[in-house]
């Protein structure tokens, strides 16, 4: 038995097959292009570079510069390249440039792109946890100050010196004697002698006056 294919059905099948092949071919041709797209990112502190699906035996090259200075000098790689680069400390935005040279014929997957690295935010200062040096207030009754047990020696009082009696007054022409008790007796005797002598002299003068 021979199968016959109607012309209408064969035309529809042919169109469907052609459409499937076209979609499949488009997807296959897009895969290498997507695979060769360099993936790289820039933050305030680092640059991440990931290159995949390049030709393994081709002299592929990659270079990263920051404000015109090499952050990653030119390096040759094969099928893949992965690198994380740390950016220098900065207080203003930096210009980061990625240059990829595809070493395969035609070099159609080469890239030259530029991005900006922002300034990192300064973290808030951490409060100090240094303990205070001020002693806490006393909660109990303060203890009385210690009483000294040793009595300080009293000051020595020097012994009193014996008092010396003041010398008695001496008349002119009278010599001091060694004994102060006989002085009144001698003075009295001398006065009596003077009085007696004066009386005798007075009596003699009176008698002479009476005779004349």
Structure keywords:
disordered N terminus, 27% helix, 212 residues, Immunoglobulin-like, rod-shaped, three-stranded antiparallel β-sheet, four-stranded antiparallel β-sheet, 7 strands, alpha+beta
Q: What is the correct CATH architecture of the domain at 26-117?
A: Sandwich
Globular, elongated, flat, extended or rod-shaped: what is the shape?
A: rod-shaped
CATH class of the domain at 26-117: Mainly Beta
Mean pLDDT: 72
Strand order of the largest sheet: 4-3-6-7
Q: What portion of the residues fall into strands of 2 or more residues?
A: 15-25%
> How many strand units?
7
- Largest sheet geometry: 4 strands, antiparallel
Structural class given helices, strands, pairing? alpha+beta
Order of helices and strands: HEEEEEEEH
Rg computed from alpha carbons, rounded to a whole number of angstroms: 71 Å
Q: Kindly, what is the distance between the CA atoms of the first and last residues, rounded to a whole number of angstroms?
A: 239 Å
Helix content: 25-40%
Flag low-confidence runs.
1-5, 23-34, 171-177
CATH topology title of the domain at 26-117 = Immunoglobulin-like
**Count of discrete alpha- or pi-helical segments spanning 4 or more residues:** 2
Structure description:
This protein is an alpha+beta fold and about 210 residues long. It has a domain at about 25-115: Immunoglobulin-like (Sandwich), CATH 2.60.40. About 25% of the residues lie in helices and about 20% in strands.
SSE topology sketch:
Blueprint: H1 7-35, E1 39-42, E2 46-51, E3 60-66, E4 69-77, E5 81-86, E6 94-101, E7 111-117, H2 183-211
Antiparallel strand pairs: 1-2, 2-5, 3-4, 3-6, 6-7
């Amino acid at each position: 038995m021979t199968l016959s294919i109607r012309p209408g059905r064969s035309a529809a099948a042919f169109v469907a097959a052609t459409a499937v092949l076209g979609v499949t071919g488009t997807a296959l041709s897009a895969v290498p292009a997507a695979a060769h797209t360099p993936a790289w990112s820039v933050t305030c502190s680092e640059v991440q570079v990931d290159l995949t699906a390049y030709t393994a035996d081709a002299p592929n090259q990659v270079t990263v510069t920051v404000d015109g200075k090499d952050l990653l000098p030119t390096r040759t790689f094969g099928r893949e390249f992965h690198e994380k680069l740390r950016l220098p400390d900065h207080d203003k935005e930096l210009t980061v440039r990625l240059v990829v040279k595809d070493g395969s014929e035609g070099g159609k997957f080469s890239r030259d792109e530029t991005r900006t690295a922002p300034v990192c935010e300064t973290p808030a200062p951490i409060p100090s946890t240094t303990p205070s040096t001020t002693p806490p207030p006393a909660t109990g009754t303060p203890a009385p100050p210690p009483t000294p047990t040793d009595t300080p020696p009293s000051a020595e009082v020097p012994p009193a010196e014996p008092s010396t009696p003041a010398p008695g007054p001496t008349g002119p022409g009278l010599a001091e004697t060694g004994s102060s008790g006989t002085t009144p007796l001698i003075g009295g005797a001398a006065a009596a002698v003077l009085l007696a002598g004066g009386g005798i002299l007075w009596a003699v003068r009176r008698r002479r006056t009476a005779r004349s």
